[in-house]
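Complex record, six chains
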Amino acid sequence: MPSRRPERRNEESAKAIVRAALDLCREVGYDKLGIEGIAARAGVGKNTIYRWWPSKSAILLDGLLSAMTSAQSDFPDTGDVVADFKTQIVAACETLTRPDTAPHYAALIGAAQQDAELANAMWERLLSHLVAAAVDRIRHAQRQGQIRSDLDPDLIVELLYGPIYYGWLIRHSPPGREHIHTTVDTVFAGVAASSAEARSGNG
Amino acid sequence: MPSRRPERRNEESAKAIVRAALDLCREVGYDKLGIEGIAARAGVGKNTIYRWWPSKSAILLDGLLSAMTSAQSDFPDTGDVVADFKTQIVAACETLTRPDTAPHYAALIGAAQQDAELANAMWERLLSHLVAAAVDRIRHAQRQGQIRSDLDPDLIVELLYGPIYYGWLIRHSPPGREHIHTTVDTVFAGVAASSAEARSGNG
Amino acid sequence: MPSRRPERRNEESAKAIVRAALDLCREVGYDKLGIEGIAARAGVGKNTIYRWWPSKSAILLDGLLSAMTSAQSDFPDTGDVVADFKTQIVAACETLTRPDTAPHYAALIGAAQQDAELANAMWERLLSHLVAAAVDRIRHAQRQGQIRSDLDPDLIVELLYGPIYYGWLIRHSPPGREHIHTTVDTVFAGVAASSAEARSGNG
Amino acid sequence: MPSRRPERRNEESAKAIVRAALDLCREVGYDKLGIEGIAARAGVGKNTIYRWWPSKSAILLDGLLSAMTSAQSDFPDTGDVVADFKTQIVAACETLTRPDTAPHYAALIGAAQQDAELANAMWERLLSHLVAAAVDRIRHAQRQGQIRSDLDPDLIVELLYGPIYYGWLIRHSPPGREHIHTTVDTVFAGVAASSAEARSGNG
DNA sequence: CACTAAACGAGACGGTACGTCAAGTCTTTCG
DNA sequence: CGAAAGACTTGACGTACCGTCTCGTTTAGTG
């Protein structure tokens, strides 16, 4: 979705555009964010934007990514899977609370409901790495006997992250450290190997 | 949000407007849905729309509500809380899959990320009843000793519904019956009273 | 070309648009005249212009016509055809010299070289009446024996007006009264009935 | 207006540019003719055009001149001034009818109404020679007693060419041989020395 | 039953932003 | 080092909707 054409492109302009988009989005809101406003703020022609990005959401996605360079792929592995996930989720949830990422991320998730291409790009560039790392960590814990091995690691990721996103997107309450810890604890109580005898059939 | 003014209002036009909005939204997508299009399709003047609704999302919310008259407040209580939630969530998730509700609901959730008033209206009119009923059912199970009583019922609702919404909104995979059952089973394994000895919160 | 749709139209806006077009054309020139400028100057939305006129030239044509309400169809007939044409041509040539008509008329003639529809509209609304009146006057003089009756009246009109327009459009010298009189005298010397013996064959 | 800078200039490119301009003007019309289109068609960078010409009209003027190398300065002088002018005007009017010159010439005359520099260049490079030659021929005829010597030769040129241009630019009818001959005959009837007794100026 | 007042369809209005296009300038790259 | 290629800022284009505002025309509901 970004820089499809690797040819001679003014990186200064590109940065100014992404910066203007991020700032304006925070100031006026995603709905009132427009290409003209971004161009004016960035001191750039509209064409220069249209030349390199197909839509305002693509610009914001670029901006969001560059604001999220931390805690990406280095999933902690201390041996204690529960503690590791607490650490990781708390870190990941910064994106949902920091004022320079939260509104943009929420807006993009909202827009992605209407834009399959954006949804795909977000998955590819924003989430797939994190989810893959989490799945790996879970598999590792399963091999170590810490987690029931009959459960799909993807399901466990959903159980862990789902409540956070649900609270954030539907209930509009940003996730706090306490809340995350309780959630992770409760989920792991259900997936821990020690409770392998838990009812696994359906009713 | 709707019919705040109880004065003489043409119910035929109102129905035509809501119907036109629902149909057009499915046909052209929420983004390209516009008041002019709705008015034209409904054979109605634009003023008639603006007189009774403040925005396209308000119209869609009215339409979505009237398409969701089923399975609202009658939460089952068979004594088996796990089975009851499976039943209820499967029913509730129809909204996330039926083609006459899913796109509108997703669009509204997306739009609500930018519109606090809409978010509030959706909570009030769409979700609060369901969540309250679920909370009640959980409290009942807690009193019966089926669920650990040290857990906030709201948290449990999040654990149950969160993964579903996460899968739907973020991963864009509609929830299936199997998936729901597994999710509910796994969550209840963690919240069941029998696993009360599970670690309930370390640092 | 103007007001094709007679429906409810704001005449105040229409007047403001035509006035703004005339004024701006004089101030910045026809080439730099644009719909946006006219709209801004007239305090009007662009749509209101596009609704009633297809192009800037159509607006100017309307404006030019309303500035030329004088000396239209009342061709003088004093019995002296030469004097009558002097009177009439001098009057008609005001359009080519008055600062509130000359630049617009020149611009429209220029634009008409690239726009057959405009050319047609100008002929129909601007010139055909005048030419028809002149032809009538010539026919009358022919019946009275003042002008050779073997000559096409249209040719005589060309001989009379052609040099004026040529001087104006090609040589860019505005026609003066003396010049017009000399031209008319010289042409009538060639078409007068008294010189009927003039060589009429070709070489 | 053209090649002011005599430095190393690629004559192949120059020719390609002029050719492209002429062709494109005929194909898409003067209004839609643009520098970008010319550059693309000529396989040339835009800068190469801007380096040597200030505007599209300057390119077309160059092109038009090179397409009019015939019948320029060699005004016939057979002794019969009427026949000579018939010959000359018919030749000159080829420019107004040939499909490789007529549209460009009309476009340039139209554009010159808005561009004094272009108007000047056209007079200097296109017309002044022809008019000077015609004036010379008329002076010669006056000295020979064929034409009234009290008339300004310039006026006679206007009388001869004016009707042609008027018919072409205003009435949009290309000049035909018959029409030219009749016009010339009638004009000369008025200016011939034999009709010197014609009224030469009353009030 | 006429009268009045509103809600209605229609759509013109002043605006704003869209995405496209070309202008003329500037920079990079190649022959 | 001139020229091709083309990215750049600028700004107008014509379109599409916005939300507001008349218009006449129904249509209730009241006097």
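Note: Confidence is low (pLDDT under 50) at residues 1-6, 196-203 of chain A.
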